[in-house]
């Protein structure tokens, strides 16, 4: 006679967080895009949804730190631990070391997760490991693990960044401010809203006006979806740095006797900047054309432009189906490593590899070249990356300037003079930083067709 298996009580918010980690690991998903769907799937109430968000996002941010702690508590390499069990151990470690969760609750709920998703033996293993983790607070673990560590290894453990990422950020910023930047990458960003011109006014959005963008507010609390203007598509969620990108492109003066009628967003997906640009263009009687290569992202762009107007073309931005010399303003918000947005997309630090840089840089140069070919004389192109890595910022711009004699770099410092300490690596360019400006680390350079 087979005995019935005992029922395992699984905590649903923690199960939801585990599903997010699985999607990131297996499907290369972005946590901030997966979280809303997972929360909806499990029908989490606001309090539980907030717990799941902090648990999943916080675990991803501090994964490097927790892996160092777990390695000290496990008698085998972490790569030999079953992947889903390791995900659960990281979640348990975050609760024990960085959240106000009682140790017994953090351990028992994690063990139940492992039991339900793996096996009884794995659950016993998880119980033993987490009891070792719980012996010390995080500060004591860091002191022990970094006591004899070299400076690079110390930063890896204490700030939870891969070594190559730390090296690239040091090269871009210098050593003095590096700890402040690394620490800022591990702080959950505030929710920032943008009022789309012609559809909403900033005054109608709840929150504190953004210090640099004239279109944004920092949400004081609650869900953005509960804001009427957001629900109606008249406003959206957008980092202040991204707002400044669109604002700067609209503000740069053109030269020559040509019109100011056609604007292009050459890498438009998912459409946040395109929506702001379309509103700004419409106020001047201009029209935005949004180009996006991937079909599913082009659909997101179309959804964002539903209220602001503008055309959407599903096409390769390096070969846009538009006549050369026919465009007045172009945005190249190029695909990049995303190392400037680690607050919002913490998993990017673990997903990206140094070898990605070459492929991305070649694409970035090709996109800038295509944008410049579209411009009429006197027109401008804004090259932006959500990365401060110098290979993706100044070196791309310098390469383009060295290969073409029909363009010049525009000094845009005066247009953003209200943003302090934002000088970029090339004179006239702009570099924002999380620890200085509370934004993503956006780089901006404007090129004008001679």
From TrEMBL:
<feature type="domain" description="SAM-dependent MTase RsmB/NOP-type">
    <location>
        <begin position="170"/>
        <end position="450"/>
    </location>
</feature>
<keyword id="KW-0489">Methyltransferase</keyword>
<keyword id="KW-0949">S-adenosyl-L-methionine</keyword>
<feature type="binding site">
    <location>
        <begin position="267"/>
        <end position="273"/>
    </location>
    <ligand>
        <name>S-adenosyl-L-methionine</name>
    </ligand>
</feature>
<dbReference type="InterPro" id="IPR001678">
    <property type="entry name" value="MeTrfase_RsmB-F_NOP2_dom"/>
</dbReference>
<feature type="binding site">
    <location>
        <position position="333"/>
    </location>
    <ligand>
        <name>S-adenosyl-L-methionine</name>
    </ligand>
</feature>
<protein>
    <submittedName>
        <fullName>Transcription antitermination factor NusB</fullName>
    </submittedName>
</protein>
<comment type="similarity">
    <text>Belongs to the class I-like SAM-binding methyltransferase superfamily. RsmB/NOP family.</text>
</comment>
<keyword id="KW-0694">RNA-binding</keyword>
<dbReference type="InterPro" id="IPR049560">
    <property type="entry name" value="MeTrfase_RsmB-F_NOP2_cat"/>
</dbReference>
<dbReference type="InterPro" id="IPR006027">
    <property type="entry name" value="NusB_RsmB_TIM44"/>
</dbReference>
<feature type="binding site">
    <location>
        <position position="292"/>
    </location>
    <ligand>
        <name>S-adenosyl-L-methionine</name>
    </ligand>
</feature>
<feature type="active site" description="Nucleophile">
    <location>
        <position position="386"/>
    </location>
</feature>
<dbReference type="Pfam" id="PF01029">
    <property type="entry name" value="NusB"/>
</dbReference>
<keyword id="KW-0808">Transferase</keyword>
<dbReference type="InterPro" id="IPR035926">
    <property type="entry name" value="NusB-like_sf"/>
</dbReference>
<dbReference type="InterPro" id="IPR018314">
    <property type="entry name" value="RsmB/NOL1/NOP2-like_CS"/>
</dbReference>
<dbReference type="Pfam" id="PF01189">
    <property type="entry name" value="Methyltr_RsmB-F"/>
</dbReference>
<feature type="binding site">
    <location>
        <position position="316"/>
    </location>
    <ligand>
        <name>S-adenosyl-L-methionine</name>
    </ligand>
</feature>
<dbReference type="InterPro" id="IPR023267">
    <property type="entry name" value="RCMT"/>
</dbReference>
<dbReference type="InterPro" id="IPR029063">
    <property type="entry name" value="SAM-dependent_MTases_sf"/>
</dbReference>
């Amino acid at each position: 006679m087979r005995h019935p298996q005992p029922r395992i009580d699984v905590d649903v918010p923690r199960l939801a967080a585990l599903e997010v980690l699985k999607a990131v690991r297996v499907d290369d998903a972005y946590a901030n895009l997966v979280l809303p769907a997972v929360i909806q799937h499990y029908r989490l109430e606001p309090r539980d949804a907030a717990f799941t968000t902090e648990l999943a996002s916080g675990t991803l941010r501090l994964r490097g730190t927790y892996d160092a702690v777990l390695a000290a508590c496990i008698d085998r390499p972490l790569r030999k631990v079953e992947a889903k069990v390791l995900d659960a151990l990281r979640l348990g470690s975050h609760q024990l070391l960085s959240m106000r969760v009682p140790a017994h609750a953090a351990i028992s709920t994690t063990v139940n997760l492992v039991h339900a998703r793996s096996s009884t033996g794995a659950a016993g293993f998880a119980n033993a490991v987490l009891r070792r983790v719980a012996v010390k607070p995080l500060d004591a673990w860091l002191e022990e693990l970094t006591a004899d560590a070299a400076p690079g290894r110390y930063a890896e453990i204490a700030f939870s960044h891969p070594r190559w990422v730390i090296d690239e950020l040091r090269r871009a910023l210098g050593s003095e401010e590096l700890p402040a930047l690394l620490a800022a990458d591990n702080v959950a960003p505030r929710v920032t809203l943008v009022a789309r011109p012609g559809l909403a006014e900033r005054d109608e959005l709840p929150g504190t006006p953004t210090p640099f963008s004239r279109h944004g507010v920092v949400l004081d609390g609650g869900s953005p979806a509960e804001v009427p203007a957001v629900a109606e598509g008249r406003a959206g969620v957008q980092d202040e740095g991204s707002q400044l990108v669109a604002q700067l492109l609209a503000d740069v003066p053109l030269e020559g006797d040509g019109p100011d009628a056609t604007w292009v967003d050459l890498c438009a997906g998912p459409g946040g900047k395109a929506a702001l640009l379309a509103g700004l263009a419409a106020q001047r009687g201009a029209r935005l054309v949004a180009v996006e290569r991937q079909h599913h992202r082009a659909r997101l762009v179309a959804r964002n432009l539903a209220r602001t107007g503008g055309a959407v073309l599903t096409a390769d931005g390096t070969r846009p189906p538009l006549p050369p010399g026919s465009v007045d303003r172009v945005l190249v918000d190029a695909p990049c490593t995303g190392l400037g947005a680690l607050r919002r997309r913490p998993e990017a630090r673990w997903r990206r590899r140094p070898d990605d840089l070459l492929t991305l840089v070649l694409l970035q140069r090709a996109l800038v070249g295509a944008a410049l070919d579209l411009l009429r004389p006197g027109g401008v192109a804004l090259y932006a990356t959500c990365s401060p890595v110098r290979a993706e910022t100044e070196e791309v711009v310098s390469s383009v300037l060295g290969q073409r004699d029909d363009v010049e770099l525009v000094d845009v410092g005066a247009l953003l003079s209200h943003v302090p300490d934002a000088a970029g690596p090339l004179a006239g360019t702009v570099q924002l930083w999380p620890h200085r400006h509370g934004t993503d680390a956006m780089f901006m350079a404007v090129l004008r067709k001679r």
